[in-house]
Amino acid sequence: MFRYLCRIVGPNEATDLTQEVFLRVARSTVPDTTADGERAWVFRIARNLALNHRRDSGRRPETVELADAARPASQETSAAMKQALDRLSPLDRDVFLLREVAGLSYEEIAGSCEISHAAVRARLHRARQQLRNELQPHLKNVSSRLVRLYEPR
Hints:
- This protein has seven helices and no strands.
- The chain has helices at residues 2-9, 11-27, 35-57, 75-87, 90-100, 106-113, 117-150.
- The protein has 153 residues and is mainly alpha-helical.
- It has one domain (2-150): Winged helix-like DNA-binding domain superfamily/Winged helix DNA-binding domain (Arc Repressor Mutant, subunit A), CATH 1.10.10.10.
């Protein structure tokens, strides 16, 4: 939950929003559904809180940490990723982050975003394509610099 919210609002606000999500879950009646449905319901609460927070606070430039990477990303790579994510439509970004950061299944994402399973697949594919296209030039520059660093002399 925290990692998902970090990607949307940044680490400073994610702590407070994560607490708010669980407060709302504790105060609410859990819907009568499957375990996956309950998980989707919790992420729907998180998504709605994050969207409200972004709408209320406006856009501010922030750096994004890629904590799950095998090695830490450079500040340049993190900034490029943040910009590429910001260029996605809000729903495409949410679908991508729910899948890749939060690890939700397509069914859980569909329930959380209130869209069909087919729409989740289409939006996830579109988001991945757009991110790949936008980050490819940046990643080629990074990999070419690494190749030059490790070439035998």
